[in-house]
Amino acid sequence: MNPLMESLGPVFIVSFALQQLLDLLEPILDKVMKPHKEWILSAVAFFVGLLLTLVLGLRVLSPFGFTRMAWLDVLLTALFVTGGTKWLNDLLKIIAYKRQEVQVRAMMAAKQVAKDG
User: Fold this and answer.
1) What is the DSSP letter of 2?
2) What is the pTM (predicted TM-score) of this model?
3) 3-class DSSP state for residue 117?
4) What is the per-residue pLDDT across 22-46, written as a single tens digit (0 to 9) for each?
5) pLDDT, tens only, 64-79
6) Are residues 76 and 93 both part of a single domain?
7) Average pLDDT estimate for 1-5
């Protein structure tokens, strides 16, 4: 397997798992502490991301040959893990919306053709 994938694959998996944990916590915090929900979720995400980074030995810079300042690699990996899936979730939502938009346009065009024909 590609060494880059071997190094970064676990980071993506942990990012996804952390996102799922936050999705579970969100409704609870929404009911209990709505005004403070966002920063609490951010803090939980960072601390869990940092803990998982340290415990699992995850690093995002080392596969690129950056071996100095291990603390920086740990910090950046934790930040990457913390927000790693948001961009993917946003992209998937955009794709889903575009797909729905295309389907609606196709249905409207088919109705127009049937009406005109």
Assistant:
1) -
2) 0.60
3) coil
4) 888 888 878 887 788 788 888 888 8
5) 888 888 899 899 888 8
6) no
7) 70
10 contact partners, CB below 8 Å, separation of at least 6: 56, 58
Same domain, 21 and 75: yes
The position carrying tokens 């927000």 is 83
Alpha helix segments (H runs only) across 1-117: 3-32, 37-56, 70-83, 86-116
Q: Which residue has the tokens 């899936």?
A: 85
112 and 79 in one domain? no
Asked if 23 and 49 sit in the same domain, the reply is: yes
Res 55 pLDDT > 90: yes
What is the C-alpha to C-alpha distance for residues 107 and 100, in angstroms, rounded to an integer?
A: 11
Q: Are residues 79 and 90 in the same domain?
A: no
Residue 14, judged by CB atoms within 10 A of its CB (0-12, 13-18, 19+), counts as buried
Separation CA 85–CA 20 (nearest Å): 10
Statement to judge: residues 90 and 80 lie in one domain: no
Domain that holds residue 113: 86-117
Domain count, the chain: 2
